[in-house]
């Protein structure tokens, strides 16, 4: 993998981590940052010379995820930002990693949901920094599912770049 592709992937990971923090703090996922992640996919596709058919397959998966998430949004089961972020994450991972991504995102999402449920009655004003951070996950404001999408998706997006670096000796 080229240095430029690695840099793009690590940049996407950083943006996703920023989105996770933003979601916990504000329960919003800025569209501009999500669009940037999508645009970086196409730049990376050019850098790694991804075939047109592969790009189309990634796009079709992203569209299918967006349509499914839009239905969940209409049913008030998912936020609009989460729907957009899920679509962009699956744009990046493609069909070959869709099931591992879904599994990882679901496991992390379960953890986030359980923390949100456990902290739903916590007041935001806490004496310690750790408890204040935990109170930010309170389910009283909704579940910050962008955290699961960012951590699960980001790890699978960055992994192809990081693994070769870890195996170098």
UniProtKB/TrEMBL annotation:
Residues 12-113 form the Prepilin type IV endopeptidase peptidase domain. The keyword Transmembrane applies. Keywords: Membrane, Transmembrane, Transmembrane helix. One of its GO terms (cellular component) is membrane. It comes from the Bacteria. The chain crosses the membrane at residues 6-24, 31-49, 55-75, 87-115, 145-166. GO terms for molecular function: aspartic-type endopeptidase activity. This is Peptidase A24A prepilin type IV. It comes from Paraburkholderia lacunae. The lineage of its organism: Bacteria, Pseudomonadati, Pseudomonadota, Betaproteobacteria, Burkholderiales.
């Amino acid at each position: 993998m080229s240095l430029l592709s690695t840099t793009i992937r690590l940049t996407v990971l950083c943006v996703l981590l920023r989105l996770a923090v933003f979601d916990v703090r504000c329960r919003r996922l800025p569209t501009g940052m999500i669009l940037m992640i999508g645009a970086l996919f196409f730049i990376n596709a050019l850098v790694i010379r991804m075939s047109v058919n592969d790009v189309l397959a990634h796009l079709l998966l992203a569209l299918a995820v967006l349509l499914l998430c839009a239905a969940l949004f209409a049913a008030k089961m998912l936020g609009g930002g989460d729907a957009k972020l899920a679509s962009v994450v699956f744009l990046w991972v493609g069909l070959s990693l869709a099931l591992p991504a879904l599994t990882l995102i679901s496991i992390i999402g379960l953890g986030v949901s359980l923390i949100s449920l456990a902290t739903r009655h916590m007041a935001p004003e806490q004496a310690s920094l750790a408890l204040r951070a935990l109170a930010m996950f309170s389910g009283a404001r909704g579940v910050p599912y962008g955290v699961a999408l960012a951590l699960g998706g980001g790890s699978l997006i960055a992994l192809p770049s990081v693994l070769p670096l870890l195996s170098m000796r």
